Amino acid sequence: MNRVHWLKSSLFTILMLGIYTFVANAVVFAEEDQDRYDQRMALYKKTAALTQIPWYYLAAIDQYERQILEDTNADPIISIQFPDEAWYGPGNLEKKKDVASIDFFQGIGRDGNGDGLADPDDPEDALYTIATQIMEYGPTEEDIRIGIWNVYKRDLAVHTIKNTAKVFRTFQKIHLTDRDFPVSLQHRYSYRSTWGDGRGFGGLRIHEGTDIFADYGTPVKSTTYGVVELKGWNLYGGWRIGIRDIFNIYHYYAHLSSYDKNIQVGQVVKPGDVLGSVGSSGYGPPGTSGKFPPHLHYGMYKDNGHSEWSFDPYPYLKRWERMAKDKK
Ligand SMILES: [Zn+2]
């Protein structure tokens, strides 16, 4: 073996080891991820059996709270949080966790695992407590919604939790991380980063989204799991669709030429479901079309539990495009 050859084969070995380590790590991460989802699902189902609140509602409440956690690095098993005063009871200044003390101070904290303590950091206690809070209003779907409203006192919270529960129920799982590119890869399209650009029509508004240029009729697909929240005409957006996903992100598809006949408000969708087709509708009264070249305007809005704001979809589109190409 000459020197150059030796060097080449060593480099090859190092490269292969690197790839192997990378793949092995990815597998370990994926398994840890799955463990986390399995643990959560087991807790939801256990609490559902104890309280008659369906597991998908408990999962949806937990999922909603996970998105509004202030510490984004924390990844507790269960993210549901309670104000100390409500949990321990007003006057329980020492934060005594035994059931008798919490009862005495009229705290809402409950013991979900029978260890005699109501601990807000114990996932079973937190889940059992939120379930008993909601159960007070009754067992029907409508009662549960009223119960959720009384916990959060915010319409968008109830709405998002209801939709997320519908998605979890439909797919019978909570690990829903698949994504798709919103325009069919079988058709010609082009896009670039245009978020924040100024635009002429409608006064001082910045461009809150990415424009994907494609021919009339190109299929437009859902990028995520979610529920159709809105469908209809808007002065700027033309024929448009809004979908809220399980991460409380609102996905906005505008300027369509038509809707898929199966798409209705309230419907559950998954990545790749056809929503309609590319057009140039908008910038006028209903039916206005052709004032600009056909394209899909794609926008993303995040809700943090208090307000909603738009963010740049371009990096996500790039990632989903790569995912969709890899799958082919
Ligand atoms: Zn646009």
3D structure, described in words:
The chain is of the alpha+beta class and 328 residues long. The chain has two domains: 22-81 and 120-171, no CATH class; 189-327, Glucose Permease (Domain IIA). 40% of the residues lie in helices and 18% in strands. The protein has eight helices and ten strands. Strands 1, 2, 3, 4, 5, 6, 7, 8, 9 and 10 form a ten-stranded antiparallel β-sheet that branches. Helix 6 packs across helix 7. The model has no long low-confidence stretch (mean pLDDT 90). Zinc ion binds next to loops.
In short:
With 328 residues, the chain is an alpha+beta fold.
Q: Could you say which small molecules are bound to this protein?
A: zinc ion
Taking pLDDT < 50 over at least 5 consecutive residues as the criterion, the unreliable ranges are none
**Average pLDDT for all residues:** 90
CATH architecture of the largest domain: Distorted Sandwich
* Count of helical stretches: 8
Q: Estimate the strand proportion.
A: 15-25%
**Which class best fits the helix and strand makeup?**
alpha+beta
